[in-house]
Each structure stands twice: as C-alpha cells, then as structure tokens.
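Q: Given only this backbone (694 positions), what sequence would you predict?
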C-alpha cells in the first residue's frame, strides 16, 4: 500500500492488493453477461428499481466515479481484466427503504472470483466495541459519516480494468456498454483496509498541528463512521472542526453530524449536520433516534435503545406453529444486534432454546416440537419488552479522571450457560457511581461438562472480557476484582501444585497469565450478578433498574461491607480433600485418554486394564463377581462395551443424545444410513439383515 499510494489532483490513488505479481484471471465476460440478462428480467418486474438503477449508473458517470470504455480501450490486451456483475439490495430495517447497488466481486468463474486473487491486508480497522467504549467515556458525544468514502479514493489505471461493469438502459436492443469504475468499489476484500490506510496516512500529516483530531480520525473511526466523546462543549467543537478540515483536505466530506449537544450542532455548517437535527430545536428533536455503529441512540435523552424490526416471518411464526423452524429461530436471534452484550441476559434465553432444538435433531426447515414452540413464543413475546430499555450512554456524570476507578467482574455458570459481566465503580469525594461496561453469555457446549468446568469456562470468559475492556479504554483503571461463587474454581486458581488435567491446566494458565490470584474473591450465589445471565429466570424484561444493568447494591457501599471474602489456603486444602472423595467414578473418561496414550494402538491391553478397574469398582461397591486371577470372557466383553460407549460419547455426542431422547438420530446424521439404535446398556449399534433372518 505504501508503494502504490499517491496524491493525484487533490485525490488519493492506490492499487488493489494482489496476492501475486503474476495473476491470471479467467474470462469473466460470459458470466457477467448472463447475470446482466437475469438482472434485467428481475428489474422489469419492479419498474421503480429499473428507473433507480438507470439514474444510479448515470450518476456514476456525472460524478466521475466511472467512465464508459472506448472501442480502442477494449481492444487493448490488458494483463488483468474482470467483469463484475451487479444487483440491488433493499434493507427493510432502514426507513425509508433505500435501494443500494452492490458489486458482486464474489461471483465465481471456474471456481474462482476476483476476491480469490486479492489480499485482505492488515487488520487496521477499529473494532466496534472499542469505538463504542470511547463513545461512552465522556460528556459530549459526536457521531458523523464520511460521505461516499470509498468513491473518493481513485484506483490506479492498470487495476481499473478489473472493475468493469456491463450495463445498458431499459432498451435491451441497445448496444452493451462497458463501465469502468475509476474509484474504489465496495466489495473487494482489500477495500476497507485500503480506505483506512489512506485516511490514516493523510491524518498523520496533521499530527503535530491538531493531535486530538488526528487521534480521533485514526483510533476512533471505523471505516466511514466517525465517533468520539469529549469532556467539554468547547473541546468537542474544536476537535470536530479540525476533523472536518482534515477530511476536506483529502477530498472527504464529514456529514450527518449528530451530538447530544445542541450548542455543538449550532456551530457546525448546516449542510454537514444530520438533516433531522438542522432545526437546532431540542423540543423538535426530542423523539429523534440515531444509529451509532448499529446501536440505536437517542441524543435528547443520551441513552441507548433497542428496537425489534417487525417482519412477515415473525408474524407468521406467531400465527402458525408450522412456521417455527430452526432456520427462523436462528434468524430472529441474530437480528438483535448487541456488540457490548448489554442485553445478553435476555438473548441467552433464545440461544438456549436454539441449542435444545439442535439437540432434538430437527432439520433446518422442519417444524419443531410443541414444547419448544411454547418456549420460543414465550421468549419472543417477552423479548419485545427490551424496547422499554433506556441504557445511559455515559458511564458517569463526573469526569472519570477525577475518580478512583475499579473494574469488578462477576462470573458464573449453570448446566445451560456460562456468563461474565463487568462494571466500572467510580469513587469520587465520597460519592460512588456504578455502570455496566460489557457482558458476555454463552450456551454450554453440546458435549456435557461438569459444573466446575463450566464455572472455569466462565472465569476464562471473565479475564478475556477484562483484557478487552482495558485495551480499548482511555480511562485509567486503579483496581481489578473478579468475583465467583465456585470454590472449586477458586481452589484451582490459588493452587500451588498445578497437578491438573489438561482441560483445567490450560484454562487456569490463561487466567493466571491475565490476572493474579489475589484479585479473585468468593461471592455468595445470591449476590453474583452473572448468575442472572446463565438461566431462565422470572424477572421481568425491559427494566433497566435491575441489578444486571446498574450493578448490585453492595458495590455502592464501602469495600469492608461487601459480601465477599478472599480465598484462603485452608479452604483450598479443604476443597482438594473434597475433590478426592468425590472422584471414585472408576473408570473415568480421562482413564480412557491416558490408556490411549499409554498403549497406543493396543486395543486388547486397554480392554484388560479397564476390566481390572471395573472389577475393582465391584469390590468397592461390594458387588458379587466371579473370583478369578485372570480376566474372564464376561469381564472382557463388559470392558469392551464400556470403551465402545466412551468412544461413541466423544465421536457421536449429538447422535447419542438424540437416540436417548427420541429413539432416532437427526436427518443429517453421518450414521443415519446404518440404522443405529441403543441396546440395553446404552451402546449405539446398527441394524442388519441378519436380525431378520430365521
């Protein structure tokens, strides 16, 4: 990128990021022509879209974004040529609905597309959560868009030949025209990285002149979305003006400026302020709701909101039970955008239902059982209440720099899910404020784990959450605490022996790499906020005053009054003794893994060891058995079946669960053709023609 970027007539020019210097592209003209014919047929059914597309193509020419290739240019044998088909998309979630022309650079010819030959480039984009964190830090929030950002960056001439588009007006008898895009298209995998590189490259030229604005452009801009927050109106106005000037100098326009400060908006050019906010009248704009990085934000109340888009699929699911399928459930869950996990306490319920649907073995478009339908409809009806939520954008009403800041993270798990939720605690002049920062909730794995191991997964999730928060905030964090109600997990974290199974050892290692044992405290289950995110509870949705959003009451008290306690060595020893007493589940699955490593491919040796262990188990439980020095055939068969079951648990966990619950495997099972069934001991076996023989 550094070798190809240059300034031409006040605009930047850059080349595409090819994965090789000797790229040979197949002939894409036939594919593009077929797609054009298909596109024209679909447009004939929608005259308004046909008119829009014709106007769009003319606009590309008028603005200089594209040119029509001459006969002479088309006759030249260019080293690389690619024709890109186009189509129109409409987003029903955006009102009014606006069509958008999309260049389908993923269209394939002979198994390859244009993107196959392009590099994505270095990941220099600002993560969504990092941008939202900065947007929440200070008093005055500012958000804006860069107008047609990609189209303001030129592509070098030799690469423009890979941006050819076929088009003709509604008169199909007219000769085909070849449009060549002279600017960056939206679609090539390298476009976001190249656009971000150009912006950062130019912004850094102003680093000494206006460092605050440059910092905002390089660290708080996600492609064409600009977002920032400041402590004072004066600072916000100054930095925003500098940002507009820097963008203007590279031929970019910063438009659709939005803010919770009407004083700031009044100081901005009207052409660059969001149309609905131009009046600069707080009373007229009270109900206005903006979108910042996909999240709804109401500037007048300075709160985040959530909206559920009503569509035909959702209405059909409510009216008809046959319309509730796994595909539609997944679609509705994924439509709720929550990058910070603030409402993960609610979304996890839908994900738990989806996992139950998956476990039952239903196909994607197969109606689910009546029991699950009832659960899903209850969830959907309750989920609509999230539209009542009003979550404050700003963490604290004061300046965080004047406060002692603590980051407290709660972790917990149940048999269905595990979760972590983090809060900032600001202490300033005997005044304490608590604000939810980020949360994460995940369903438990399909392969069943013990509760202590799920609690350990929650602890790992908690340290990862804290790491993300620390890296993406400019707020100085003075203290970090982790609260868990699992004494087993705390004993693992505080252990000095480290004699753990691989599963436990690797996760404890990650926890200790990112935190200290002294930061981990025990909290009672009733006081653990993360517990709310691991199960279906009866608390009403849509109440932003619950402890999940505002934190538990004890966080606002003195630390000495908190219902937590550090984990002591005495408790650790006690926990280790207890763990010894509850382990005589002989043999365990870990035994099978160790035998596999010990005897490798020697099946008979593994079976004999298991047989002796099962005999020892019978002795402990005082079960009568045939007293022999050597392993009897009955004992050998019993041990073999035990190993079969353990291997099947690992290889076919979903099939095993489906057989146990429904008596059949799901329709896409890899062993469906074998007609599997469970015998009396729970071993998966296959039916054969020998069973039907006389």
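A: Predicted residues:
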């Amino acid at each position: 990128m550094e070798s190809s970027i240059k300034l031409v007539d006040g605009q930047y020019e850059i080349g595409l990021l090819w994965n090789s210097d000797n790229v040979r592209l197949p002939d894409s003209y036939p594919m593009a022509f077929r797609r054009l014919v298909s596109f024209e047929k679909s447009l004939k059914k929608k005259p308004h879209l046909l008119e829009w597309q014709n106007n769009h193509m003319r606009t590309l020419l008028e603005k200089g974004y594209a040119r029509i290739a001459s006969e002479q240019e088309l006759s030249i044998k260019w080293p690389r040529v690619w024709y890109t088909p186009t189509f129109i998309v409409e987003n029903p979630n955006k009102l009014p609905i606006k069509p958008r022309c999309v260049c389908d650079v993923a269209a394939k010819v002979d198994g390859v597309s244009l993107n196959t030959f392009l590099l994505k480039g270095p990941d220099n984009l600002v993560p969504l959560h990092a941008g939202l964190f900065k947007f929440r830090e200070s008093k005055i929030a500012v958000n804006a868009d860069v107008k047609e950002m990609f189209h303001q960056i030129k592509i070098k001439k030799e690469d423009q030949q890979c941006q050819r588009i076929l088009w003709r007006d509604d008169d199909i008898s007219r000769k085909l025209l070849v449009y060549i895009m002279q600017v960056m298209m939206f679609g090539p995998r390298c476009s976001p990285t190249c656009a971000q590189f150009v912006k950062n490259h130019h912004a850094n030229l102003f680093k000494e002149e206006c460092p605050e604005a440059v910092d905002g452009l390089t660290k708080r801009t996600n492609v064409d979305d600009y977002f920032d927050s400041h402590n004072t109106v004066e600072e916000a106005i100054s930095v925003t003006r500098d940002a507009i000037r820097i963008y203007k100098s590279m031929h970019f326009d910063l438009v659709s400026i939005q803010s919770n400060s009407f004083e700031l908006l009044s100081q901005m050019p009207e052409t660059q302020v969001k149309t609905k906010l131009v009046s600069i009248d707080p009373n007229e704009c009270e109900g206005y709701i903006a979108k910042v990085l996909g999240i709804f934000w109401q500037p007048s109340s300075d709160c985040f909101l959530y909206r559920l888009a009503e569509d035909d699929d959702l209405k059909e699911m409510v009216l008809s039970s046959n319309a509730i399928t796994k595909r539609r459930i997944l679609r509705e869950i994924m439509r709720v955008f929550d990058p910070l996990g603030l409402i993960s306490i609610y979304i996890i319920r839908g994900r738990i239902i989806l996992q139950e649907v998956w476990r039952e073995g239903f196909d994607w478009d197969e109606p689910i059982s009546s029991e699950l339908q009832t659960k899903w409809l209850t969830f959907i009806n309750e989920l609509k209440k999230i539209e009542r939520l009003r979550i404050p954008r700003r963490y604290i009403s004061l300046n965080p720099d004047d406060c002692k800041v603590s980051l407290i993270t709660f972790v917990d798990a149940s048999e269905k899910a595990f979760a972590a939720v983090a809060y900032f605690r600001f202490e300033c002049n005997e005044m304490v404020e608590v604000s939810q920062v980020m949360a994460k909730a995940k369903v438990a794995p399909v392969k069943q784990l013990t509760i202590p191991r799920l609690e350990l997964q929650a602890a790992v999730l908690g340290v990862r959450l804290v790491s993300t928060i620390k890296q993406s905030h400019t707020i100085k964090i003075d203290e970090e605490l982790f609260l868990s109600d699992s004494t087993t997990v705390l004993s693992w974290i505080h252990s000095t022996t480290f004699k753990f199974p691989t599963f436990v050892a690797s996760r404890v290692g990650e926890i200790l790499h990112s935190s200290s044992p002294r930061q981990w405290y025990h909290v009672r289950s009733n006081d653990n906020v993360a517990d709310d995110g691991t199960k279906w509870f009866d608390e009403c949705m849509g109440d932003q005053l619950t402890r999940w959003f505002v934190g538990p009451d004890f966080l606002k008290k003195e630390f000495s009054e908190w219902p937590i306690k550090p984990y002591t060595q005495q408790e650790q020893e006690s926990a280790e003794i207890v763990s010894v007493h509850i382990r005589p589940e002989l043999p365990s699955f870990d035994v099978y893994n160790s035998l596999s490593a010990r005897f490798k491919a020697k099946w008979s040796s593994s079976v004999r060891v298991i047989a002796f262990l099962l005999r020892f188990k019978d002795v402990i439980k005082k079960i009568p058995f045939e007293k022999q020095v050597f392993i009897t055939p009955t004992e050998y068969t019993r041990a073999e079946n035990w190993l079969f079951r353990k291997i099947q648990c690992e290889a076919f966990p979903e099939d095993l669960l489906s057989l146990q619950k429904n008596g059949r495997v799901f329709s896409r099972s890899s062993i469906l053709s074998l007609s599997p069934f469970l015998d009396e001991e729970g071993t998966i076996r296959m039916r054969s023609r020998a069973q039907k023989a006389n």
